[in-house]
Amino acid sequence: MTGTVSAEQQHEWVIAAYVPVDAQGAAYARRRGVYRVPATTKVSSTEVICIHCRLPYDVALHAECPGSDPNLHGGPVGTRKRRPAASPTPQAAAG
Q1: Radius of gyration of the chain (CA)
Q2: Does the pLDDT at position 10 exceed 80?
Q3: I need a labelling partner for 76 at 20 to 30 A (CA). Which of 31, 38, 44, 45 fits?
């Protein structure tokens, strides 16, 4: 790939990880949807992916991010533009 990738087409990397917690921490994380990791906790990375296109780091590193295009998401339901209606195909005359 030559040139630079624009800011809109860059990947946003995240790490999928396993975080060891006790029963109380697991219950809190399930209830609140968040868990603060103590500074001394060692986190094991399982995978590095782009949050937008969900491609692994090794595959997506040198490519533009297809998932960062805002046009692919369509917008909120009810405010999306309708697709143009297909023009009717002319029928052959019976005869």
Answers
A1: 23
A2: yes
A3: 31
